[in-house]
């Protein structure tokens, strides 16, 4: 019988065949799943963001639901609501989309603050409250929210405190010419196939990952070895965002607010998950360095001067990685 780690390695390969040209998005999705967190994905339309989480849902024991966020969306459209039953004069709770395992919150910044708050509360508390009753959400529960960086008119940007709730902030870009040729070939094959074949193609001979296997995988990730000096390196990266003056006066002028302790927790769990997905039982400095951008970019608040000069959070993270010694 395959080990749980081998099962997830096979899952990564299968997703790579279904979603061409987005290996980083696939890896970050699996890292968020293993680290029991949520991710915010930013990218132009048509870059397989929806396809990636839909395919992941096809290989997991559980359910997937997509919610298109719009300005007229209400919190009850996510959480559910009490429905009156005229037969006996009672009320019964009708569950909303948040009671699924995998949620795609498409274009989250198009919905008003009340809807965003309802989603983020569910992400943090793993429960929703309607009236005086609280309802536990499914386990596992993963939200992938997307943002379109092109159109900003009519949007409601997420404030920093809400962004901090996301484990990772992932940016996806356009594929190369060679990769896009492969995408064309895959699209032709899917069009040629009849509907039944296309449906079955999403779940070929790959047996779904069960909830028990996922819990075991998460346990193995938490127990994975992280050397003490690497833990200190991880902490120094996060602490440097709060005390940037220790690493250069220029950084002190560019950062208004640094990352919260959630960043340290996220970087620790994500680095362990990445090492585990790579088939190792120990964390390397490269695991921490590669994930530092996705963990920190949405947790840094830049100064007005830095924004005026076109300095980005990614540039600051790059500077910190260059200046803080690697153990």
The total of beta strands comes to: 11
From the alpha-carbon coordinates, what is the Rg to the nearest angstrom? 21 Å
Q: Biggest β-sheet, characterized?
A: 5 strands, parallel
Number of H- or I-type helical stretches: 15
What is the CATH architecture descriptor of the largest domain? 3-Layer(aba) Sandwich
What does it look like?
The protein has 327 residues and is an alpha/beta fold. The protein has two domains: 194 residues, P-loop containing nucleotide triphosphate hydrolases (Rossmann fold), CATH 3.40.50; 100 residues, Helicase, Ruva Protein, domain 3, CATH 1.10.8.80. Strands 2-5-8-1-9 form a five-stranded parallel beta sheet. A two-stranded antiparallel sheet has the order 3-4. Strands 6-7 form a two-stranded antiparallel sheet. A hairpin with a 2-residue loop joins strand 6 and strand 7.
Task: Report a brief summary of the structure.
The protein is α/β, with parallel strands linked by helices and 327 residues long.
Descriptive tags:
Helicase, Ruva Protein, domain 3; 327 residues; alpha/beta; 2 domains; Rossmann fold; 5-stranded parallel beta sheet; 49% helix; single chain
Question: What is this structure's SSE topology?
Answer:
Elements: H1 4-18, H2 23-34, E1 39-42, H3 49-58, E2 64-68, H4 76-79, E3 80-85, E4 90-95, E5 102-106, H5 113-125, E6 127-130, E7 133-136, E8 142-147, H6 160-163, E9 168-171, H7 177-192, H8 195-201, H9 211-223, H10 228-242, H11 249-254, E10 255-257, H12 261-277, H13 285-296, E11 301-302, H14 304-308, H15 313-323
Parallel strand pairs: 1-8, 1-9, 2-5, 5-8
Antiparallel strand pairs: 3-4, 6-7, 10-11
Helix pairs in contact: 2-12, 9-12, 10-12, 10-13, 12-13, 13-15
């Amino acid at each position: 019988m395959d080990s749980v780690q081998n099962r997830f390695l096979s899952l990564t390969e299968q997703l790579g065949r279904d979603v061409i040209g987005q290996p980083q998005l696939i890896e970050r999705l699996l890292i968020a799943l293993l680290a029991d967190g949520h991710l915010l994905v930013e990218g132009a339309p048509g870059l397989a963001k929806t396809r990636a989480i839909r395919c992941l849902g096809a290989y997991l024991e559980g359910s997937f639901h997509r919610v298109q966020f719009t300005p007229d969306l209400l919190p009850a459209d996510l959480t559910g609501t009490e429905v009156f039953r005229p037969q006996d004069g009672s009320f019964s709770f009708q569950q909303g989309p948040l009671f699924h395992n995998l949620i795609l919150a498409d274009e989250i910044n198009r919905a008003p603050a009340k809807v965003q708050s309802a989603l983020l509360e569910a992400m943090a508390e793993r429960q929703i409250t309607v009236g005086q009753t609280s309802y536990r959400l499914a386990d596992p529960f993963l939200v992938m929210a997307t943002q379109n960086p092109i159109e900003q008119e009519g949007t409601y940007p997420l404030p920093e405190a809400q962004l901090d709730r996301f484990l990772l902030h992932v940016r996806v870009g356009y594929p190369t010419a060679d990769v896009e040729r492969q995408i064309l070939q895959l699209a032709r094959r899917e069009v040629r196939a009849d509907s039944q074949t296309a449906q079955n193609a999403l779940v070929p001979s790959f047996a779904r990952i069960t909830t028990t296997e996922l819990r075991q995988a998460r346990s193995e990730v938490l127990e994975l070895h992280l050397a003490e000096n690497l833990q200190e390196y991880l902490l120094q990266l996060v602490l440097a965002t709060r005390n940037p003056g220790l690493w250069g006066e220029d950084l002190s002028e560019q950062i208004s607010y640094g990352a919260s302790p959630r960043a340290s927790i996220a970087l620790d769990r994500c680095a362990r998950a990445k090492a585990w997905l790579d088939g190792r039982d120990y964390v390397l400095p490269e695991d921490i360095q590669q994930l530092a951008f996705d963990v920190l970019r949405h947790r840094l608040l830049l100064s007005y001067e830095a924004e005026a000069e076109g300095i980005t959070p990614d540039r600051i993270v790059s500077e910190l990685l260059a200046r803080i010694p690697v153990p």
